[in-house]
Amino acid sequence: MLQPTEVIAVKLLPTIRARLAQTLLEAYGMKQIQVARALGLTQAAVSHYNTKSRGLDQDLLKRFPEIDGFVVLLAEKIHDGLPRTQQIALINQFSFHLLNTQRFCEFHKKISHIDPGCAVCFPTPPPP
Questions:
Q1: For the chain, which residues make up each domain, given as ranges?
Q2: pTM beyond 0.85, yes or no
Q3: CA–CA separation, 102 vs 126, rounded Å?
């Protein structure tokens, strides 16, 4: 069983990193090593993200289409020199926003095989 915050670590963050790496490589023509330095990753991780052999959770992307819009804006800021601490803060804010939605709760229930009546995330109904 995964805790909601583990879902962020195991599913959401790798998906955001993969999309960021792909966007920086494709839209900005950055080299893998440049992307790795900008994101604080290894070149090997960027390579895996680029080939889509790791990181992307398609179900998560379908449930949260706003991930792509967030990534496009963040990639532009990173390309323009956004410091890593600000990257972390923006990703943290975005992740927290998603965590506090019914869609995230439903995704958590699905991948953790939790009973549908679970009220751990929200003792009272969350926003859609």
A1: 4-112
A2: yes
A3: 6
